[in-house]
Amino acid sequence: MELIWEGLRKALELLLRLDPEVLGITLLSLKVSGIATLLSVALGLGLAVLVALNDFPGKRLVIALMNTGMGLPPVVVGLFVTVLLWRNGPFGFLGILYTPAAIILAQSVIATPIIAGLGLAALQHLPPGLRLQILSLGATRSQMVWLLLKEARLPLLAAVMAGFGGVISEVGASIMVGGNLKGSTRVLTTATVMETSRGNFEIAFALSFILLVLAFTVNALLTHLQQRSGRR
Amino acid sequence: MNRPACLRLGLAFVVALASAHLPAAPPTQRAVILATTTSTQDSGLLDELVPLFEKQTGYAVKTIAVGSGQAIAMGKRGEADVLLVHSPEAEKALVADGAGINRRIVMHNDFVLVGPAADPAGVAKHTAQESFQRIAHSKAIFLSRGDNSGTHAQELKIWKAAGIPLEGQSWYQQTGLGMGQTLAIAAEKKAYTLSDRGTYLALRKKLGLPILHEGDPSLRNVYHVIEVNPARFPKVNEPGARAFADFLVSKAVQQRIKEFGIALYGSPLFFPDAGTPDAGSQH
Description:
The complex is a heterodimer of chains A (232) and B (283).
Chain A: H1 2-16, H2 20-53, H3 59-69, H4 74-85, H5 100-124, H6 130-136, H7 141-151, H8 153-168, H9 172-178, H10 188-197, H11 201-231
Helix pairs in contact in A: 1-11, 2-5, 2-8, 3-5, 4-5, 4-9, 5-8, 5-9, 6-7, 8-11, 10-11
Chain B: H1 3-21, E1 31-36, H2 38-42, H3 45-57, E2 60-65, H4 68-76, E3 82-85, H5 88-97, E4 100-114, H6 128-138, E5 142-144, H7 150-162, E6 172-174, H8 179-189, E7 192-196, H9 197-207, E8 211-213, E9 220-228, H10 238-249, H11 251-259, H12 262-265, E10 271-272
Parallel strand pairs in B: 1-2, 1-3, 5-6, 5-7
Antiparallel strand pairs in B: 3-9, 4-7, 4-8, 4-9, 4-10
Helix pairs in contact in B: 6-7, 8-9
């Protein structure tokens, strides 16, 4: 128990004296998971809109696949991405294994189905007549999509938060494709794993607290956005 | 836009964004991929040696700290440039196979058998083999790494020599984790386990697991550096790998290895061996 308090004290200390290494790790976590979430919003919402607004054979299968993708284990994604990015592998020419770009790629693979699946559910939950109503008022197709997204903004922002939460907290993929390299691909979760295995439990706790504060801050901002727009 | 095009665009976008917003990866020729065991990282040795090497040579080392099993597998596929590992049998197989070249001894420490202070199996004052037999007969819990690491390989060798079958034994449990975590679990479960001395010394204060057996010649833990064969894998950074291997066995670095850990743990964690007859090969 005293380890946890010790960790909390250490977290405060590291944050207050702006420890450059911890600060770097924290900013990298935010940057990598932030970019991955943005990419996943673009890809995931695009996919959700495509599936929601079109009828095609096998649609249910596609939806089932998207929903399964929401539970993709990060370590499985990490394994696939690592093997694909190996320098002797099919995408080895990119030369991005063990760089932040590889983590962004892996995290995007994890978050895209989460945002796509929850986004699709949000869009399908809208009243079925709404689409025709908007179109009959003379809206173009892209205006209609925009209005639908706006109408579903509450659950859509929840989808974004779920996506971000999924990637900021994952360790399995980050450690495999990033390699936990000091000053380059070490993020909060991989640093926590390493400090735990080194037996530096109070530092591991400190990093965990920083991760929780970071996740809370980002989610508080998104929630603020969500609730404000919800009241309008 | 069809979906494959979306994916390609997405991938290109990822790469473009990443290269625009994040520190660029060092050029391939400067980067040296070192695949190594967790013990060299967890003990803090590489935190001391790698920055020194980078400063002296300008190479950027990417240290991928995994078990010796995985490190050697990476070498076998040409996915690393240089290996620092401690699993002699697997190393020799790698060199015989032609994927590894220039295997040189770097240092050693030793394995220690740790366990609950009460020592229910009564292993103290016996040879390593007898100790393992006593654990088996008393059915005291033994925690194995179970992860193909060098430590795991060493432990299996002793069980084999002791003539103890491990299949389906309830007292023999595998963690599948690194040394530090396995030691922590052993402390919680009051179990026996085999550990490299470096990791054990680094964690000793938090564990409350005394050393019950040490010093047996079969518990020697030897680390070798192996370069990955550039003739087989053209993408290997040959000069970088050679420079790092030469660095490890250089006089100055061997001296650093000798002194490493004394200030922090009261005794050295590794003993330099470069240039000495290779005891690890005798196993």
